[in-house]
Write a structure and sequence with these properties.
Chain A: One of its GO terms (molecular function) is phospholipid transporter activity. Chain A: Keywords: Membrane, Transmembrane, Transmembrane helix. Chain A: Pfam families: MlaE. The complex is a heterodimer. Chain A contains nine helices and no strands. By secondary structure, chain A is mainly alpha-helical. Chain A has one domain. Chain A is elongated, with a radius of gyration of 21 Å. Chain B is an alpha/beta fold. Chain B has a domain of about 150 residues: P-loop containing nucleotide triphosphate hydrolases (Rossmann fold), CATH 3.40.50.300. Chain B is built from ten helices and ten strands. In chain B, helix 4 crosses helix 5, helix 5 runs parallel beside helix 6 and helix 6 packs parallel to helix 7. Chain B starts with a strand and ends with a helix. Classes of the chains: A mainly alpha, B alpha/beta.
């Protein structure tokens, strides 16, 4: 375990060495940002709307009492969407979509000697391959999380409008009641760390792939599994530290 | 010129290379030959720095490459071109982008100069007008030629070639061999080729070292091979009935 941790830290350190030419790396960062950000908007849209809707319906069901104001469902739905569903569920989905792509892309480059080709040219392979992905991850995952928050809350509104369990005016009133801006900060701090976890762990798994196509698949799977575990671990630490 | 001195390489308990010493001169095709598992590719990877030798030195024009760190090696690496067994072209880039890639990173050439250089390299390997194709759209022989074009883009002093003819038909193999030979002669490059293809050995083998069980078992030229009394080399070169019959005619 300590060997793996040491290799991971050394690889990340190597990734942040001074680039050979900044303009080339900047182009890579932009490309990765499009791949991670724009490429993930579809799946994030779908899960955010559905989770927002389901959360609202479930809260409305559980608080179906004449003693509890109906608007409370909006408040609970808002807080749980912003604090937990949008950052963490999105990150788990992104670990599957983005993480497996990173691990398999770098793993394939390793087994087809493309990384060797980079090293022969004198290119710092971890810097060229991993650093742009990490930068793109820590920028784009928070942006996706903000996008997910908006859609999650919209999903809740749609659920109210369609099912009629709660009046939309009550839902909107609930959204406005007792809003604490710190929950946005907590969610964005989580998203920042999740972006780093997904990209760096999956890149590490891909970079140290050896063998052939089978091992590339195994690296992708391992990368996603470890990313999910560390996302949940980071979730616990950040939540307990900031709230 | 490249000198390798007393190179040992061990993986765990497995000693793959056992004290190999050789000199590879500029303007010559230096071939490393041997059976499967003899340590050819490991030796090549030790020379180019993809593996660190357990013991021994690799010297490029008087500079001890093995004693250098990653940054110190960069100036020498810029003078190295390498063609990999599976070409190792970057899948996400077109042919042109593959060739321009090292120029983007290590030169201050303008865009038009880089394009001119890419076109020149592609013409040199007879692949004019293939600039916009992706590696997945190329045949095995074309991939090798693009690999060569990328390797010569930075005008290297040293060219390393790993199994240039693997997976190619005999006619394409000859084209690749001739291309490597022409480039070596034309630009006075120190070329080191790992192969077990006997057509390459007999065709372009200016200087050959034969590895057997991790040791240098023989050294000479393609003209010396037919008359060697080295048993391991004879077993390797004249393994088939066809080559035995050819030897008897010599």
């Amino acid at each position: 375990m300590f060997t793996t941790l040491g290799k991971y830290i050394l690889l990340i350190r190597l990734s942040f060495k001074k680039p050979e030419k900044f303009s080339v790396y900047w182009g890579e960062i932009m490309r990765e940002m499009v791949s991670i950000g724009i490429g993930s908007m579809g799946i994030i849209s779908i899960i955010s709307v559905f989770i927002g809707a389901v959360a609202t319906i479930q809260v409305a069901f559980q608080l179906a009492s004449p003693l509890v104001p109906r608007s409370i469902a909006g408040s609970i739905s808002r807080d749980s969407t912003i604090l937990e569903f949008s950052p963490t569920i999105s990150a788990l989905v992104l670990a599957g979509r983005v993480g497996s792509s990173i691990a398999s892309q770098i793993g394939t480059m390793r087994v087809t000697e493309q990384i060797d080709a980079l090293e022969i040219m004198g290119v710092n392979a971890p810097g060229y391959l991993i650093a742009p992905k990490i930068f793109a991850g820590i920028i784009m995952v928070p942006m996706l999380v903000i996008y997910s928050m908006v859609l999650g809350i919209l999903g809740g509104y749609l659920a109210c409008a369609i099912t009629g369990d709660i009046a939309t005016t009550d839902y909107v009133m609930g959204l406005r009641d007792g809003f604490q801006p710190i929950i946005i900060q907590v969610a964005l701090v989580k998203a920042f760390f999740y972006g780093f976890i997904i990209t760096s762990i999956c890149a590490y798994q891909g970079f140290y792939t050896s063998g052939g196509a089978l091992e590339v698949g195994q690296s992708a799977t391992t990368g996603v599994v470890y990313s999910c575990i560390f996302i949940l671990f980071a979730d616990l630490i950040i939540t307990s530290a900031m709230l | 010129m490249i000198e390798i001195q007393d190179i040992y390489k061990t993986f765990g308990d497995n000693e793959v290379l056992k004290g190999i010493t050789a000199t590879f001169e500029a303007g010559k095709n230096n071939l490393i030959i041997g059976g499967s598992g003899s340590g050819k590719t490991t030796l090549l990877k030790c020379i180019v720095g993809l593996h660190e030798p357990t013991k021994g030195k690799v010297i490029f024009n008087g500079e001890d490459f093995t004693a250098m760190n990653f940054e110190e090696r960069v100036p020498i690496r810029k003078q190295i071109g390498m063609l990999f067994q599976n070409s190792a072209l970057f899948d996400s880039m077109t042919v042109e982008e593959n060739i321009i890639f090292p120029l983007n990173l290590f030169t201050d050439m303008s865009k038009s100069e880089k394009l001119d250089r890419a076109n020149f390299c592609l013409e040199r390997v007879n692949l004019k007008d293939k600039n916009k194709l992706f590696p997945s759209e190329l045949s095995g022989g074309m991939k090798k030629r693009v690999g060569i074009a990328r390797a010569i883009a930075m005008e290297p002093k040293y060219l390393f070639v790993d199994e240039p003819n693997s997976g190619l038909d005999p006619k394409t193999s000859i084209v690749i061999d001739e291309l490597i030979n022409e480039l070596t002669q034309e630009y006075k490059i120190t070329t080191v080729i790992v192969t077990h293809d006997m057509n390459s050995v007999m065709g372009i083998g200016d200087h050959i070292i034969f590895l057997h069980q991790g040791k240098k078992a023989w050294e000479g030229t393609n003209k010396d091979i037919a008359h060697t009394d080295n048993q391991e080399l004879n077993d390797f070169v004249f393994a088939s009935k066809f080559t035995q019959a050819a030897k008897e005619k010599l």
